[in-house]
Amino acid sequence: MLDQGATLDRVFQALADPSRRIMVEQLSRGPASVSELARPLTMTLAAVVQHVQVLEASGLVRSRKVGRVRTCTIEPSALGTAEQWIAERRARWERRLDRLGEYLAEHSDEPDEGSSR
Amino acid sequence: MLDQGATLDRVFQALADPSRRIMVEQLSRGPASVSELARPLTMTLAAVVQHVQVLEASGLVRSRKVGRVRTCTIEPSALGTAEQWIAERRARWERRLDRLGEYLAEHSDEPDEGSSR
Question: What number is the ipTM of this complex?
């Protein structure tokens, strides 16, 4: 549970940066080298490497160096953890609204209590 | 699109903090006052107010002050925006894996090309 908390801290922090989201977007279409990730971004290669390190530390991306080329791949389970956390809270809120709606519908059908209308 | 980017920056930044996630968790069960949000947390009321302000700026929470009590409510559309962004990237990656699997399955059925076996 503590571990999941730390993962969520790092995943949400990683996704809070627009350049890192562009990298995740690109990697969702397939693996890419660091220079391919750098291409659409207006920043130094060193800055791109730092962003890749944040993405790796969060678990969203893993990379492997073969020769002089480091290739990055998306790790869908970290995306799944963050997606599930949000989805559960949103679902709980919606179930609450549904119950509230049912309660109001039931009570508006009771003419005995309709004195305020 | 720029607007959505700024929203995602703020929503993911807001969710990157464990105390703010506890607040969102509590608010997903129903509206709460700032002091109710402070109860499970070991921090000053001033710190809680600051976290609430970050949550409001992100669009995840809205609040309304009546008399001396500020009541916070979750805003499910901001959660939905973040959830959808993640879900789309994850789905794109999974479709890619599916296509790759289909390609491999098709090509492993071709004995004409099975020279390496």
Answer: 0.86
